[in-house]
């Protein structure tokens, strides 16, 4: 015989939100003790939880003021890309250094498929971390907005657009492209090409904007044949350089939007019998170990990658503790480091 009125399952966040007359994100912020919730909303959510007669364990922990003492560092890349790309390792080094004395467990999370993305979204919804650091975000990445909706503090490495609402630490990517092209044209290059990153990433579009500003400032004609899109990988740099040589064999300067892509471009130029820098001057971005070890050593735009990792972790900790009511928005300067390739 059934017992009248007895619940057979846990109420969900959606059910609590419906009872309280607020959004799901507001419920999550209330149960996680976020300071960015009105007293009225807190009262409505608390009453709805009481009326439903059950508080999920994770919410009970949050209401009691407990935390997971864990932060997720999310990188949507494969292991091979993670360890081949110095940029990611420098970010990890900076984050780890900043968290060393914070009594926080750092959880490195690689997202390589839609299934893994769904699994992490469920993990995030279960409030199993106190905050999230997101690296290499594309324009359509839903994770920053999901974290915001759930009231989970999040800081991005870079931005998805000029109007980014989630906290971020970025570098001056327009300035990086502009300074590279200014240097190339200043040394006499007149057919300056660029190898971009994926154009669904704001960082790649900004570096392309900087390239175009530099070309215009030098009084050179804009030529879309001198622009080749790639993917921040060495092989992508190789493919793009082949395209550029096929379309514009008289190219005499190349701005690659990363050192790794510049390394790929350097290999293709060598195969084509083009000397660097005598025939083609070459510049990358990051000032990584790749730049210093290339032959010839690569001129590169330095961005303070490790410092970005530190600043991201510092901003996230302040957001978790409620010390910063407004999202962090930081853009760090870049600097051209001249070596033999240009």
Automatic annotation (TrEMBL):
Cross-referenced SMART domains: HTH_LACI
Sorted UniProt keywords: DNA-binding, Transcription, Transcription regulation
Gene3D superfamilies: 3.40.50.2300, lambda repressor-like DNA-binding domains
Record-linked Pfam families: LacI, Peripla_BP_3
Presence of keyword DNA repair: no
A GO molecular-function descriptor: transcription cis-regulatory region binding
CDD domains: HTH_LacI, PBP1_LacI_sugar_binding-like
Domain (HTH lacI-type) ranges: 11-65
Protein name: LacI family transcriptional regulator
Organism the protein comes from: Streptomyces lavendofoliae
Lineage: Bacteria, Bacillati, Actinomycetota, Actinomycetes, Kitasatosporales
């Amino acid at each position: 015989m059934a017992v009248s009125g007895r619940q057979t399952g846990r109420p969900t966040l959606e059910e609590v939100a419906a009872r309280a007359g607020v959004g799901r994100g507001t419920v999550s912020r209330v149960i996680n003790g976020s300071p960015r919730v009105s007293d009225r909303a807190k009262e409505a959510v608390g009453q709805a939880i009481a009326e439903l007669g059950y508080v999920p364990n994770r919410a009970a922990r949050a209401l009691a003021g407990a935390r997971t003492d864990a932060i997720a560092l999310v990188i949507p890349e494969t292991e091979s890309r993670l360890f081949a790309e110095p940029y990611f390792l420098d970010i990890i080094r900076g984050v780890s250094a900043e968290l060393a004395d914070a009594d926080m467990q750092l959880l490195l999370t690689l997202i390589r498929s839609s299934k893994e993305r769904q699994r992490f979204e469920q993990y995030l919804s279960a409030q199993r971390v106190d905050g999230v650091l997101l690296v290499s975000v594309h324009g359509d990445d839903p994770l920053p907005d999901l974290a915001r909706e759930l009231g989970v503090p999040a800081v991005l490495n870079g931005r998805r657009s000029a109007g980014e609402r989630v906290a971020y630490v970025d570098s001056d990517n327009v300035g990086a492209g502009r300074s590279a092209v200014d240097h190339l044209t200043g040394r006499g290059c007149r057919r300056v090409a660029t190898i971009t990153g994926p154009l669904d990433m704001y960082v790649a579009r900004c570096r392309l904007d900087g390239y175009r500003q530099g070309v215009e400032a030098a009084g050179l004609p804009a030529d879309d044949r001198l622009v080749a899109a790639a993917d921040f990988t060495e092989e992508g740099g190789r493919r793009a350089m082949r395209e550029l040589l096929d379309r514009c064999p008289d190219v005499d300067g190349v701005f690659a939007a990363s050192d790794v892509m510049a390394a790929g471009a350097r290999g293709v130029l060598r195969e084509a019998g083009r000397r660097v820098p005598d025939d083609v001057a070459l510049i990358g971005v990051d000032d990584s170990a790749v730049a210093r070890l290339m032959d010839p050593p690569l001129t590169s735009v330095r961005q303070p990658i490790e410092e970005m990792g530190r600043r991201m972790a510092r901003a996230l900790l302040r957001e978790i503790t409620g010390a910063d009511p407004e999202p962090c928005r930081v853009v760090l300067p870049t600097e051209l480091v001249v070596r033999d390739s240009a």
